[in-house]
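Need Glycoside hydrolase family 65 protein's 3D structure for a figure. Predict it.
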Amino acid sequence: MSRHLFSFIILFLTSMTFAQSQGDEWNLVATSRSNYFGVAMANGQIGIVTDDTPLRTKEIILNGVYDGSPENGISRIVRGIEFLNLKLFLDQKEVQSNTIENWKQVVSMKNGTSTTSFTFNNSAQITYTIIANRAVPFSAMAIVEIIPSKDLDLKASNYMIVPEELKDAKNQFRVLKDNQYRMPIFSTVAKTRTGKYTVAAATTFLFDQKVEDLQQTGNEVGFTTKLRKGQKYRFAVAGGICTSKDVTDPVNESERQPIYALQEGIDKLVSKHQKAWSVLWDSGDIQIEGDLDAQQRVRFALFNLYSYIRSGTRQSIAPMGLSSQGYNGHIFWDTELWMFPTLLALQPDLAKSCLDYRSDRLEKAKQKAFIYGYKGAMYPWESDDTGEEATPTWALTGIFEQHITSDVSIAFWNYYALTQDKVWLQKEWNVLKETADFWVSRVNENADGSFSILNVVGADEYAQHVDDNAFTNAAAIESLKNTIKAATILNEPIDPKWKTVAEKLKIHSKDGITQNYKGYDGQMIKQADVNLLAYPLHVITNKEQIERDLAYYSEKIDKKDGPAMASGVLSVLYARLGNREKAYDYFVKSYLPNSRPPFGVFSESANSNNPYFATGAGAMLQAVIFGFGGVEQTDTGFRYNKGLLPKQWKSLKIIGLGTDNRTIKIN
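Structure prediction for Glycoside hydrolase family 65 protein:
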């Protein structure tokens, strides 16, 4: 792509961005359905992706549930039964995409809702709100409000869509009774493609006023009633989805979700959901004064990260979160290097869940090391629920992109460094020890007594089968040094080889520039690699060296297909060097070319359409917290430096930092 064409695309995206900047600091507003990319209403357990089609969702993603894909048998995160879809008929005329006007959709980040409104046939105003309940993790609800402009007959029905990857689907409608309580339940159950898991969804209707009798017609369950002119009528479809991955009996547990909803009612369920979101925002938020667009985008990035995980689940976050099956929903370095630092800063309990996920799979990491003839633990490049290597076999990254093992170890140390929780550190000591043992067994000793790591794929994935990749070696050095620190704190034995390898592992340089790998000669790189040695690693600390490496490698990164993360880390580094203009420019580059309408969801690169790329959101947020905000990770917790405010902003406030919930403000 020519430089002129790339510049034109950026200008086009910029103009599109201004067109979509509606709403306020908490609400994103869309009024156009063209080129639509939806948002996942998620609660860390299920992700319900919005659609521009009235009264239906695009898909549902189930966190941590994987089955084999038909293409190659490699595991893929499972799409669930879409259980919130509705059909409405007003005076026998169906509400459809081509029969509505004045369509508008609002994503409320504060309340975790998506509300679509429109007019139908000049006879009614209709709103439709989707909630993945943050307080009740396996449940969700769709709330419908109708204000008729004349007396109308309403027919409403709930139907479920079973994705092609599920099989043997069966549905039933029955009315359960307990004394005076009648509980109508509509349910669907299916198997995942290989039969590994059972997936079950169940719903019921909730009413504000008279409880309507429900009837089944084919594969739909619904009711009829009369609406009066000018009188608002509200009802909801409420229920849940469960799998045998999480519970022994998903069929009955899924039916308990609508039964619970019947006893709670619409308002109480909404209130619990909103309170759960309020707790998150009160304990971790970023406020930007003077730049509404930046405020919306930063908060939207936080909203998505928070949506994709919940504390105590021992689950992690895939690159696309719960927004799609992108990258098969596998767990990569994206979590530890790009998303984890923001979560650790603002929501340590959520961050801990990512570590729990890795801790639970330590034995499988040890097994992988054994398979390839190494000691210790070798974490897989792509991980699923099993913790075994889940990368497609054709991809060399699965065997050779080994820096993931250090990325995991460094995240564990950083959690301890922030919390200073020695009891936790002792419990998780084996993660640090086993990853250190891996590197000692992995290195090759050179004739001069130095060490090399040969034949790897680096963070720069364009460089395959290279020796002494800068980030791989530097991350191993930091991992080994952190393990020695942990051993000292815990009075655990220190293997002298950890120290020897950490001190003598080679990082090459040429003409004053840190080499991307041994023999590197200026080739285009996929993403930041060498620059990561200064941040988030602490291996290169000399200011002049950081500046030289920045100037050199910022021009080598693939400007067409490079992922969003590089610009985020370059922004951090320029902010720390005091270069306000470049820090801001790279901050904007970290999201603007990758934003997609109508809400600005992230795509992985300027040239792709695969949102929502949570990894890129994590990098952009690091630019704000660890760049402009001046926050620095140290071995004894966060250090709060002066920070640097872009001239476009009046102030920056970061709320809920660290374990003491500190608030900082930069004017």
